[in-house]
Amino acid sequence: MKWNNLKEVVEVLDRDKTIYDIFCECPYEILKNVRLKKYRSGEFRLEHGEVHDKFYIIVEGEADIFFVSDNGKKYHISTYKKGQFLGELEHFDRNPFLSLVEGRGEVVTLEMGREEYLTWLEKDNNFKQYVLRALCRYTYSSMQKMSEATLYTLKQRVCQYFIENTNEKGKTSMLLNVEELSERMGVTTRSVNRILKELKDKNILEINNSKVMITNREQLLKEKNEK
User: Which structural domain range is residue 127 located in?
Assistant: First the structure.
């Protein structure tokens, strides 16, 4: 990990319009306390249920967001990318993080303390609009995940996942990580394997090692729409 000075923070703003647009009206008293931090693969992790005193903006890389059950089962909520925030919900009342955050590979962030975040929010209407939109996206995404888990069967959700991640032209293939898929569905790997076996037995897909090939997209669509 490496801390960088204000000059390097400004260089990020100069070369990246997405990040610049967030900071374009940031008061200097806040900007001078922002730090650029680089994390190697596997280093960036924010535990759920713990209070974190920093506010994060992703500059490079991606971070997976999970809900974690009492028994430790992870449920994938979203993947955050450049320009998205971490900590905007919890800092108002210094609450513990609702979710677990894990970086995907190397991650670069802009970071500031809780007090700087709250002061920036108070003084900068442009930033306030960014945070409001982020909160709306989070609420919408959470409600969408909740409705999918409630209204659709696991098979329907697995079929939809394959439909969304493959194209429509003939046979298509993709890498498959059963553990990751189970995290996205919020179920055990055993449940996911049961659905995969059913689709394979119906000649809808083929699985070789870690690669899945969709062999009958039309039937996959029918399975997805089955009640």
Answer: 2-150
